[in-house]
Amino acid sequence: MQEIFPSTDVIAAELAALRTAAALVARGASPRVVLESVARHVAVAVEADFLEILQFDEHDRPRVIAAWASRGDRVLALERWALDDDRAARRIATTRAPTREDAGDGGPDATSENAGERHGIRSSVGVPVLLQDRVWGAIFVHSIGDQPLPDQTEARLLGLTQLIASAVANSHANTAVEELAADQAALLRVAELVARGAPPVEVFAAVAEELGRVVNAAGAKMLRYEKDGMATFLASWGSLEAGIPAGTRLSITGTSVTGQIFATGRPARVDDYGTATGAIAALQRSAGMRSAVGAPIVVDGGLWGALVVGTVAADPLPPHTEQRITKFADLVAVALSNLEARVALHALADEQAALRRVATVVARGEWDVTSATIVREVALLLEVDGSVLLRYEADETVTVLAAWGSPDMTDYVGQRLAFDGDNPAAQVWRTRRPARQEDFGDARGTLAELTRREGITCVVASPVIVENQLWGAVVVVSTEPEKLPADTEERIGQFTELVATAIGNMKSRLDLIESRARIVQTADLTRRRFERDLHDGIQQRLVSIALDLHGARESLPPELERSRAKLSGVATQLADALEDLRELSRGLHPAILSEGGLEPAIRSLARRSPVPASVRLEHLPRLADPVEVAAYYVVSESLANAGKHAHAALVDITVRCHDGRLEVTVVDDGAGGADPSLGTGLTGLVDRVEALGGSISVRSPKGQGTRLIATLPITG
């Protein structure tokens, strides 16, 4: 027979649940922590095998937010499921009344499958948790024994739902107050930036950072929608910045948060980016984003852009995140409400993106690509018809280095044109300042005539200054009757600074290469002179002394055998010293290289190598002396390292000419671990090869041998 009144143990468990909940709420614990603790005490109080506390979302889908079981392996780890799939949860949501289901009781909807039946549940009781007169969620307790849950289970649970509701309300209230304070502080910091006239870039970056921090997201972004169906990302913050950095332009097609906001003009969320489509979703997914929430930025009644936050956590962002983001979006909209400010911000965002693209190309040091990128980006950003990059020459001409747009001036690229007469290029040459011309009717000179012939109506030129010297000019042109904007000169100036940087970097690199080449050349000449002095001086004298010594020994009578033996010993030592001198001479500058070329010199190195070496030489012609010397020393140093440091058993040498370059490959089977950065002889090889415009690579994993490849341009 079931007990009518609960035992003292049950009452103690109920009191323990109340005390625990009160203590956790007082300490400011999150609702989830409070409910997980309460779940354990409630399950004991009602003598259930396991228990779940469910919360219904805005779509009436329940989610298990706390659970307890007498056996840990029986806790249900359920994701969200539709109410139509669970009759018990559906009844609580619709009737706001307790519900019970016992196996085989023939209750309502007994033929439909309940989620619990898939887990061997014998008896289930659920009661609603009401919060502010709405069904916030439910408590379900289950039994897997032979007997159903006691009849008074519903009443006991109803008595405890107020505890659950209070815990949720108090925790939510504490959380809401903390979030409100954090939101207000963050908004105030951004508002202060706007009030003191901070640059838009700084404001945008602050918005993204403050927003990301207050909602505890892994990343936050501010973007602007374009007329061409693209989105420009103006600011990016957090670990997800690597996915879409500021300045990026992407198509808004797809089901990302960005795309949904553009389509609806309303806040949007994606709780699972695994199924989202489009370029933006793909990039965000590759950066690790799991879910995101965003809100629109509406300026003067029109959709201007959006703020988006994302997370890499498994759980989606809280349901009220949209409201918090909207507060920031409203503040941004206020800052953008002035039309003139908005136009300036558009231009600045475009400018930043263009400058970022140019800077990226400049950093790679590829001049042909850099010059073409600069003229294209300048023309597109300033919305002019065309642009040209000029370099001033000593004979008062300009060389056209790159051209883009209309009229098509690519035929002039590489040509040198006189800039005499009336034209902006001549004005820049004289003043080193930006110049413009809007009337070429009476203008004189080659460039003026070209301008009239091509139908150009306005030209603006800005100087490129490198190391305080006038180097060239960036020129933009228009064929329209309207004048180019007054700030055109200033906006071109930012690109000319990048041009100057690119040229300065290139000049520094050329100066370094030339300096290295001079050092290598001087060292080679010194070596050669020293080798010649040794050969023609000391070496010849020693040979002469050896001959005299041999003659003196032969002139001694036979009875002076001891003296003859001593002279023979001296002659042997002298021969050894002479051979050492010849070896030293070959190391300074091998005569065989000068006389026979690279092929016999390398074969000679292989024969004298302390490590057995195989040689493959493919049709080597005589090459320029610096190239042959560099290749010789690459092989010589590699063989020395293979014997001295790598303790190799075999070396393979391959030298071949192809595509206008000499390639030297040396592979050994030694200990590996060679590193040119450690200041070994390899460092000198790198300097020697790069001084000739070549390159050298070393792959030397420990225990796997060394592969060295040197590539040299064939200059003769």
Automatic annotation (TrEMBL):
Domain GAF: 30-178, 199-346, 366-513
Protein name: histidine kinase
Lineage: superkingdom: Bacteria
Species for this entry: Agromyces tardus
Reactions catalysed according to its record: ATP + protein L-histidine = ADP + protein N-phospho-L-histidine
Region (Disordered): 92-120
Catalytic EC class: transferase
Domain Histidine kinase/HSP90-like ATPase: 626-716
Sorted UniProt keywords: ATP-binding, Kinase, Nucleotide-binding, Phosphoprotein, Transferase, Two-component regulatory system
A cellular component annotation (GO) from this entry: membrane
Keyword match Transferase: yes
Cross-referenced Pfam families: GAF, HATPase_c, HisKA_3
SUPFAM superfamilies in the record: ATPase domain of HSP90 chaperone/DNA topoisomerase II/histidine kinase, GAF domain-like
